[in-house]
Protein backbone atom coordinates (compact mmCIF):
# COMPACT_ATOMS: atom_id res chain seq x y z
CA UNK A 1 0.00 0.00 0.00
CA UNK A 2 1.46 3.35 -1.15
CA UNK A 3 2.17 6.08 1.39
CA UNK A 4 1.34 9.63 0.32
CA UNK A 5 4.46 11.78 0.28
CA UNK A 6 3.93 14.40 3.02
CA UNK A 7 1.40 12.79 5.35
CA UNK A 8 3.14 9.41 5.15
CA UNK A 9 -0.22 7.61 5.44
CA UNK A 10 -1.84 4.83 3.45
CA UNK A 11 -5.49 4.26 2.56
CA UNK A 12 -5.67 1.57 5.24
CA UNK A 13 -4.68 4.10 7.92
CA UNK A 14 -7.90 6.05 7.23
CA UNK A 15 -10.23 3.07 7.83
CA UNK A 16 -12.53 4.19 5.02
CA UNK A 17 -12.89 7.83 6.18
CA UNK A 18 -14.60 9.92 3.51
CA UNK A 19 -14.90 13.13 5.53
CA UNK A 20 -12.11 15.31 6.92
CA UNK A 21 -12.30 18.26 9.29
CA UNK A 22 -9.47 20.60 8.35
CA UNK A 23 -8.44 23.39 10.74
CA UNK A 24 -5.36 25.51 10.07
CA UNK A 25 -3.82 25.11 13.51
CA UNK A 26 -2.28 21.71 14.47
CA UNK A 27 -3.18 22.23 18.15
CA UNK A 28 -6.80 22.83 17.16
CA UNK A 29 -6.73 19.50 15.28
CA UNK A 30 -5.72 17.78 18.54
CA UNK A 31 -8.47 19.55 20.49
CA UNK A 32 -11.12 18.63 17.90
CA UNK A 33 -10.01 15.00 17.97
CA UNK A 34 -11.05 14.76 21.65
CA UNK A 35 -14.68 15.06 20.52
CA UNK A 36 -14.40 11.89 18.40
CA UNK A 37 -14.94 8.36 19.67
CA UNK A 38 -11.67 6.38 19.97
CA UNK A 39 -9.38 9.17 18.73
CA UNK A 40 -5.87 8.19 17.68
CA UNK A 41 -3.05 10.32 16.35
CA UNK A 42 -2.13 9.19 12.83
CA UNK A 43 0.82 11.49 12.18
CA UNK A 44 2.44 14.76 13.22
CA UNK A 45 4.70 16.02 10.46
CA UNK A 46 5.47 19.64 9.56
CA UNK A 47 2.17 21.56 9.85
CA UNK A 48 0.12 18.43 9.26
CA UNK A 49 -1.21 16.79 12.43
CA UNK A 50 -3.77 14.12 11.59
CA UNK A 51 -6.11 12.22 13.89
CA UNK A 52 -8.62 9.47 13.21
CA UNK A 53 -11.74 8.67 15.18
CA UNK A 54 -15.43 7.88 14.79
CA UNK A 55 -18.37 10.21 14.57
CA UNK A 56 -21.85 8.69 14.28
CA UNK A 57 -20.12 5.31 13.97
CA UNK A 58 -18.11 6.33 10.91
CA UNK A 59 -14.41 7.08 10.48
CA UNK A 60 -13.50 10.75 10.29
CA UNK A 61 -10.08 12.37 9.86
CA UNK A 62 -9.03 15.60 11.52
CA UNK A 63 -6.00 17.09 9.73
CA UNK A 64 -4.44 20.52 10.17
CA UNK A 65 -3.54 22.33 6.97
CA UNK A 66 -1.12 24.92 8.33
CA UNK A 67 -1.50 28.52 7.25
CA UNK A 68 -2.25 29.37 3.63
CA UNK A 69 -3.05 27.77 0.31
CA UNK A 70 0.14 25.86 -0.56
CA UNK A 71 0.12 23.63 2.52
CA UNK A 72 -3.68 23.34 2.38
CA UNK A 73 -3.45 22.08 -1.18
CA UNK A 74 -1.02 19.35 -0.10
CA UNK A 75 -3.22 18.16 2.78
CA UNK A 76 -6.33 18.10 0.59
CA UNK A 77 -4.61 16.41 -2.37
CA UNK A 78 -3.08 13.68 -0.21
CA UNK A 79 -6.24 13.06 1.84
CA UNK A 80 -8.20 12.83 -1.43
CA UNK A 81 -5.72 10.22 -2.68
CA UNK A 82 -6.48 8.31 0.53
CA UNK A 83 -10.24 8.35 -0.13
CA UNK A 84 -11.53 11.56 1.51
CA UNK A 85 -14.27 13.29 -0.51
CA UNK A 86 -15.59 16.00 1.84
CA UNK A 87 -13.49 18.69 3.54
CA UNK A 88 -14.90 20.87 6.32
CA UNK A 89 -12.60 23.77 7.18
CA UNK A 90 -12.89 25.29 10.64
CA UNK A 91 -10.87 28.45 11.00
CA UNK A 92 -10.43 31.82 12.63
CA UNK A 93 -11.03 35.06 10.80
CA UNK A 94 -11.11 38.85 10.76
CA UNK A 95 -14.47 40.48 9.97
CA UNK A 96 -14.51 43.57 7.76
CA UNK A 97 -18.20 44.54 8.06
CA UNK A 98 -19.06 46.80 11.01
CA UNK A 99 -22.09 44.74 12.09
CA UNK A 100 -20.09 41.50 12.52
CA UNK A 101 -18.70 41.11 16.04
CA UNK A 102 -15.88 39.20 17.69
CA UNK A 103 -17.13 35.71 18.54
CA UNK A 104 -19.60 35.63 15.65
CA UNK A 105 -19.74 32.59 13.39
CA UNK A 106 -19.20 33.06 9.64
CA UNK A 107 -20.00 30.51 6.95
CA UNK A 108 -18.27 31.11 3.61
CA UNK A 109 -20.40 30.52 0.54
CA UNK A 110 -17.60 31.49 -1.81
CA UNK A 111 -14.25 33.23 -1.68
CA UNK A 112 -12.43 36.04 -3.41
CA UNK A 113 -9.31 34.43 -4.84
CA UNK A 114 -6.53 36.56 -3.36
CA UNK A 115 -4.35 33.46 -3.11
CA UNK A 116 -1.85 32.01 -5.54
CA UNK A 117 -2.34 28.29 -5.00
CA UNK A 118 -5.89 28.15 -6.38
CA UNK A 119 -4.53 29.32 -9.74
CA UNK A 120 -2.59 26.07 -9.95
CA UNK A 121 -5.92 24.21 -10.07
CA UNK A 122 -8.11 26.45 -12.25
CA UNK A 123 -7.84 29.84 -14.00
CA UNK A 124 -8.85 32.98 -12.08
CA UNK A 125 -12.22 33.27 -13.79
CA UNK A 126 -13.24 29.91 -12.26
CA UNK A 127 -15.22 30.46 -9.03
CA UNK A 128 -13.95 29.59 -5.56
CA UNK A 129 -17.33 28.24 -4.51
CA UNK A 130 -18.21 25.91 -1.63
CA UNK A 131 -20.23 22.73 -2.02
CA UNK A 132 -23.92 23.61 -1.63
CA UNK A 133 -24.86 20.61 0.50
CA UNK A 134 -21.80 20.75 2.77
CA UNK A 135 -22.48 24.46 3.32
CA UNK A 136 -26.14 23.74 3.98
CA UNK A 137 -25.00 21.26 6.63
CA UNK A 138 -23.03 24.07 8.32
CA UNK A 139 -26.17 26.25 8.23
CA UNK A 140 -28.36 23.45 9.59
CA UNK A 141 -25.76 22.72 12.28
CA UNK A 142 -26.04 26.33 13.49
CA UNK A 143 -29.84 25.97 13.48
CA UNK A 144 -29.71 22.72 15.51
CA UNK A 145 -27.34 24.28 18.05
CA UNK A 146 -29.18 27.61 18.26
CA UNK A 147 -26.07 29.49 17.12
CA UNK A 148 -26.49 32.71 15.11
CA UNK A 149 -24.32 32.97 12.00
CA UNK A 150 -23.55 35.13 8.99
CA UNK A 151 -23.23 33.57 5.56
CA UNK A 152 -21.61 35.19 2.54
CA UNK A 153 -18.39 35.89 0.68
CA UNK A 154 -14.90 35.65 2.21
CA UNK A 155 -11.71 37.28 0.97
CA UNK A 156 -9.02 34.62 1.12
CA UNK A 157 -5.52 36.02 1.05
CA UNK A 158 -2.02 34.52 0.83
CA UNK A 159 -0.77 36.95 3.44
CA UNK A 160 -2.05 38.01 6.85
CA UNK A 161 -0.43 41.47 6.70
CA UNK A 162 -0.28 43.21 3.26
CA UNK A 163 -2.96 41.06 1.60
CA UNK A 164 -5.37 41.92 4.42
CA UNK A 165 -4.23 45.58 4.26
CA UNK A 166 -2.62 45.80 7.69
CA UNK A 167 -0.54 48.92 8.33
CA UNK A 168 0.43 48.15 11.92
CA UNK A 169 3.52 46.26 10.72
CA UNK A 170 7.33 46.38 10.64
CA UNK A 171 7.43 48.70 7.62
CA UNK A 172 3.99 50.27 7.97
CA UNK A 173 3.73 50.10 4.18
CA UNK A 174 1.11 48.27 2.13
CA UNK A 175 1.92 47.90 -1.59
CA UNK A 176 -0.29 49.95 -3.91
CA UNK A 177 -2.12 46.88 -5.20
CA UNK A 178 -3.62 46.39 -1.72
CA UNK A 179 -4.08 50.03 -0.65
CA UNK A 180 -7.82 50.61 -0.35
CA UNK A 181 -8.56 46.93 -0.96
CA UNK A 182 -10.20 46.37 2.44
CA UNK A 183 -12.67 49.20 1.76
CA UNK A 184 -13.32 47.81 -1.72
CA UNK A 185 -14.18 44.37 -0.30
CA UNK A 186 -16.39 46.00 2.34
CA UNK A 187 -18.30 47.89 -0.34
CA UNK A 188 -18.70 44.69 -2.33
CA UNK A 189 -20.30 43.03 0.70
CA UNK A 190 -17.44 40.70 1.58
CA UNK A 191 -17.72 39.54 5.21
CA UNK A 192 -14.20 38.66 6.24
CA UNK A 193 -10.58 37.77 5.63
CA UNK A 194 -8.90 34.40 6.12
CA UNK A 195 -6.23 32.47 4.26
CA UNK A 196 -7.26 29.01 3.03
CA UNK A 197 -10.82 28.93 1.70
CA UNK A 198 -10.02 30.16 -1.83
CA UNK A 199 -7.57 27.33 -2.38
CA UNK A 200 -9.82 24.80 -0.66
CA UNK A 201 -12.97 25.77 -2.58
CA UNK A 202 -11.30 26.09 -5.98
CA UNK A 203 -9.36 22.86 -5.84
CA UNK A 204 -12.29 20.88 -4.41
CA UNK A 205 -14.71 22.21 -7.04
CA UNK A 206 -12.18 21.54 -9.81
CA UNK A 207 -11.38 18.02 -8.56
CA UNK A 208 -14.99 16.96 -7.92
CA UNK A 209 -14.55 17.06 -4.12
CA UNK A 210 -16.83 18.82 -1.60
CA UNK A 211 -15.79 21.67 0.69
CA UNK A 212 -17.32 24.04 3.21
CA UNK A 213 -15.86 26.55 5.65
CA UNK A 214 -16.89 27.93 9.04
CA UNK A 215 -14.86 30.41 11.06
CA UNK A 216 -15.00 32.25 14.35
CA UNK A 217 -14.34 36.00 14.33
CA UNK A 218 -11.26 37.07 16.33
CA UNK A 219 -11.19 40.72 15.31
CA UNK A 220 -13.32 43.34 13.62
CA UNK A 221 -11.07 45.17 11.21
CA UNK A 222 -13.21 48.31 11.18
CA UNK A 223 -12.16 48.74 14.85
CA UNK A 224 -8.63 47.26 15.15
CA UNK A 225 -5.97 45.47 13.13
CA UNK A 226 -4.60 42.73 15.39
CA UNK A 227 -6.80 40.30 17.36
CA UNK A 228 -6.49 40.43 21.15
CA UNK A 229 -9.40 38.27 22.29
CA UNK A 230 -9.27 34.92 24.09
CA UNK A 231 -9.62 32.34 21.30
CA UNK A 232 -10.94 29.57 23.58
CA UNK A 233 -14.68 30.26 23.67
CA UNK A 234 -14.76 31.32 20.02
CA UNK A 235 -13.06 28.09 19.00
CA UNK A 236 -15.47 25.99 21.08
CA UNK A 237 -18.43 27.52 19.26
CA UNK A 238 -17.01 27.05 15.76
CA UNK A 239 -15.85 23.51 16.59
CA UNK A 240 -19.36 22.63 17.78
CA UNK A 241 -20.70 23.82 14.41
CA UNK A 242 -18.26 21.80 12.33
CA UNK A 243 -18.82 18.64 14.39
CA UNK A 244 -22.60 18.96 14.10
CA UNK A 245 -22.27 19.61 10.34
CA UNK A 246 -20.10 16.51 10.01
CA UNK A 247 -22.72 14.44 11.86
CA UNK A 248 -25.45 15.73 9.54
CA UNK A 249 -23.40 14.84 6.47
CA UNK A 250 -22.60 11.38 7.84
CA UNK A 251 -26.23 10.60 8.77
O1 LIG B 1 -7.17 29.65 12.48
P1 LIG B 1 -6.81 29.15 11.10
O2 LIG B 1 -7.59 27.98 10.69
O3 LIG B 1 -5.32 28.93 10.95
O4 LIG B 1 -7.24 30.33 10.09
C1 LIG B 1 -6.78 31.67 10.10
O5 LIG B 1 -5.73 31.96 11.02
C2 LIG B 1 -4.47 32.03 10.31
C3 LIG B 1 -3.89 33.42 10.44
O6 LIG B 1 -3.74 33.80 11.77
C4 LIG B 1 -4.78 31.68 8.87
O7 LIG B 1 -4.59 30.31 8.67
C5 LIG B 1 -6.23 32.09 8.75
O8 LIG B 1 -6.95 31.56 7.69
O1 LIG C 1 -7.80 38.93 10.78
C1 LIG C 1 -7.60 37.71 10.67
C2 LIG C 1 -7.82 36.83 11.75
C3 LIG C 1 -7.57 35.49 11.57
N1 LIG C 1 -7.14 35.07 10.36
C4 LIG C 1 -6.93 35.89 9.33
O2 LIG C 1 -6.51 35.47 8.25
N2 LIG C 1 -7.18 37.20 9.50
TrEMBL record:
InterPro entries documented for this protein: Nucleoside_phosphorylase_CS, Nucleoside_phosphorylase_d, Nucleoside_phosphorylase_sf, Uridine_phosphorylase
Gene3D superfamilies: Nucleoside phosphorylase domain (3.40.50.1580)
Reactions catalysed according to its record: uridine + phosphate = alpha-D-ribose 1-phosphate + uracil
Protein keywords: Cytoplasm, Glycosyltransferase, Transferase
Superkingdom as given in the UniProt entry: Bacteria
GO BP annotations listed: nucleoside catabolic process; nucleotide catabolic process; UMP salvage
Keyword Zinc-finger: no
Pathway assigned to this chain's UniProt record: Pyrimidine metabolism; UMP biosynthesis via salvage pathway; uracil from uridine (phosphorylase route): step 1/1
GO CC terms in record: cytosol
Subcellular location: Cytoplasm
EC number: 2.4.2.3
Principal localisation: cytoplasm
Annotated protein name in UniProt: Uridine phosphorylase
